[in-house]
Amino acid sequence: MTQLRIRTTLTLLLLMAFSTATVAQDSHCQLGIGEDEASTPSDEFELPRDGTVIHVRTDLQWAQCALGQGWSRDSCTGQAESMTWSEAQTAIDELNRTGELGGYTDWRLPTREELETIVEKCREAPAINDDIFPDTPWAGFWTSSLDTEEEGDAWFIGFYYGLTLEYSRDSSYRVRPVRYR
After folding, report:
1. Cis peptide leading into 126, omega within 30 of 0?
2. Is there a contact between 117 and 58 (Cβ–Cβ < 8 Å)?
3. What is the β-pairing status of strands 153-158 and 163-168?
4. Radius of gyration, CA atoms only, the chain
5. CATH number for the domain including 174?
6. Is there a domain that residue 123 lies in?
């Protein structure tokens, strides 16, 4: 009887240890939302501590905050700016002119495919790893990708559910700059 209790206790301890390790690895996931494992685990990112983050899997360097927000220690402060697609292009040009983000001058709007690589499929509201990209608005973020069927439309990703949609370039969405590392 004692051996059975010891075996049962050991089995429970092992299960608890395994469960804890899994939860710790995907701590930004939400139970019952989307996939069981993180699609953007934190260990795929390097944090230079200059307001940028490097996605090692894709070799892309992202602004940790949306344009309009500022990086402060471990969070994004201020309000993410909404802008039309054309205004987004101008804002990126200004960012490059000043070199204020990490000292780099080759930032751009991400392609649709690039922005999809940071959508987190195990959470929503926002559907992004908020340990890596804190204070991300749920609203849409522009891509550089244009809709070939609808003249005047561009693709954006809404970070409430992580959906990719196209809409008029005269609409207002947020911007998260990217560059190749």
Report:
1. yes
2. yes
3. antiparallel
4. 20
5. 3.10.100
6. yes
Q: What is the largest CA-CA distance in the chain?
A: 76
pTM value is 0.84
In a domain, 128, yes or no: yes
Please state the separation of Cα 15 from the chain's center in Å. 31
CA–CA dist 137, 3 (Å, integer):
54
Length of the chain: 181
Residue 16, both tokens: 């608890």
**pLDDT, tens digit, for every residue of 54-98?**
999 999 999 999 999 999 988 999 999 999 999 999 999 999 999
- Three-state SS for 57-72 is CCCEEEECCCCCCEEE
Considering the domain boundaries, does residue 46 fall inside one?
A: yes
Split into its structural domains, the chain has a count of: 1
Domain extent, residue 62, equals 28-180
